[in-house]
Q: What sequence folds into this?
């Protein structure tokens, strides 16, 4: 029972860390793109938000999947 709980904690941590890193990268990249392509007015905030959430979701998914794969290995 302890091993499953440990694995779940690792996967949850992986998703959280991936989401945080992805959100930060997405915010920076979204801001850069919004300025570069001269997105008008309040659409800039929407564009940055979409980029941030999309990037956070993708990074979180992949880091969580990697943590899940890594849970099955014993060294």
A:
């Amino acid at each position: 029972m302890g091993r499953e709980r440990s694995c779940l904690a690792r996967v949850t941590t992986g998703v959280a860390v991936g989401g945080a890193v992805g959100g930060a990268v997405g915010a920076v990249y979204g801001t850069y793109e919004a300025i570069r392509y001269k997105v008008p007015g309040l659409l800039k905030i929407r564009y940055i938000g979409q980029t941030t959430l999309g990037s956070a979701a993708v990074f979180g998914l992949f880091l969580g999947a990697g943590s899940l794969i890594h849970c099955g290995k014993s060294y």
